[in-house]
Amino acid sequence: MTTANNSESFEDYLSSDKAIWYWAIIVISVTTAFLVYLIPHDIYPWAFLRNVLGIIFVFFLPGYALTKVVFPKKSSAGGMESLGVIIRIAFSVGLSIAIVSILGFILYYTPSGLDLTPIVISLLTFTIILATAGAIRESRTKN
Q: Is 61 helix (H, G, I), strand (E, B) or coil?
């Protein structure tokens, strides 16, 4: 019965304003993955959007999702976060570089190799899994 109670609180968390970061990660990640395949790299105005979203997708989102897993917001009396905004952004960039490097190293030794499709799919999957874990952890921390 405790599981049903936790799942209801997680659903409430996902529908609240506190989970905007989660939905932003999901929307940006999925949009970037679609744009990588839909927009050729030589169409000028649209390729710029593809490149900007790609930079955010590679250099920020995986680390931000991992930061949310490791350092969820604390539910203290003052409502302070466990990390400041600048430190969270710095951790996000640094951890994203580390995550992408490790994923690239792992993909290099797979039969598919370092091609566009395995890189995008693995990074998308990893980011969504980390964001979901971060949302679960933050919803449990709030309660």
A: helix
Q: What is the pLDDT along the chain (143 residues), one digit of tens a residue?
A: 445 555 557 888 898 888 999 999 999 999 999 999 998 888 888 888 899 999 999 999 999 999 999 988 765 544 445 678 899 999 999 999 999 999 999 999 999 989 999 999 999 999 999 999 999 998 888 55
Total of domains in the chain? 1
Residue 78, classed as helix, strand or coil, is: coil
Residue 35's domain spans which residues?
Answer: 2-142
Q: Residues 6 or more apart from 69 whose CB is under 8 A from it?
A: 130, 133, 134, 137
d(CA 54, CA 116): 12
In whole angstroms, give the CA distance from residue 67 to residue 96.
10
* 20-44 core/surface letters (b: 16 or more CB in 10 A; e: else): ebbeebbebbeebbebbeebeeeee
